[in-house]
């Protein structure tokens, strides 16, 4: 749909007396998203079988506790959703790391050198493995910021 057609549709929606505030906001977001959009992360490998964000975080927390790595479910979840929206195959091909040839990958958008340096024993060496990605990122965050719970933006 072209922007002008979207704008007209949005205008018609907002003139309806029964329109909800949520619908108006959604329409505005669609129009704004069409005008300005950031490149999206793309999938690099097939989706991981058998799991979901809740399972991956809880498995990671179990390993982290055993290894003495601090962090909470909420701290991991907020960062994971900001970084990848829960997509274990997310890869950032447009930022400064990508420009250097080392794109951020996985649930917590870790670059290869950081993943290797902070890999946690007992987890996969596959950066796209959800549990390995979470635990390595949390290990890095613990060393750099004290805990993943202290991270509130890209790190």
Automatic annotation (TrEMBL):
Pfam family, any one: SLT
Signal sequence bounds: 1-43
Keyword Secreted: no
Residue ranges of domain Transglycosylase SLT in the record: 77-152
SUPFAM superfamilies reported in the protein's UniProt record: Lysozyme-like
InterPro entries: Lysozyme-like_dom_sf, Transglycosylase_SLT_dom_1
UniProt entry keywords in alphabetical sequence: Signal
Annotated coiled-coil segments of the chain: none
Protein name: Transglycosylase SLT domain-containing protein
Species: Streptomyces yanii
């Amino acid at each position: 749909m072209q922007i002008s057609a979207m704008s007209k549709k949005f205008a018609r929606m907002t003139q309806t007396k029964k329109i909800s505030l949520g619908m108006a906001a959604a329409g505005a977001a669609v129009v704004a998203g069409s005008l300005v959009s950031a490149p999206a992360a793309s999938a690099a490998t097939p989706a991981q079988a058998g799991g979901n964000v809740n399972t991956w975080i809880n498995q990671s927390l179990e390993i982290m506790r055993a290894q003495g790595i601090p962090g909470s479910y909420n701290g991991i979840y907020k960062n994971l959703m900001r970084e990848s929206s829960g997509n274990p195959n997310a890869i950032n091909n447009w930022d400064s790391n990508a420009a250097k040839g080392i794109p951020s990958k996985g649930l917590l958008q870790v670059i290869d050198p950081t993943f290797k340096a902070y890999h946690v024993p007992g987890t996969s060496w596959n950066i796209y493995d959800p549990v390995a990605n979470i635990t390595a990122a949390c290990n890095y965050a613990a060393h750099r910021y004290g805990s993943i719970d202290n991270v509130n933006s890209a790190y």
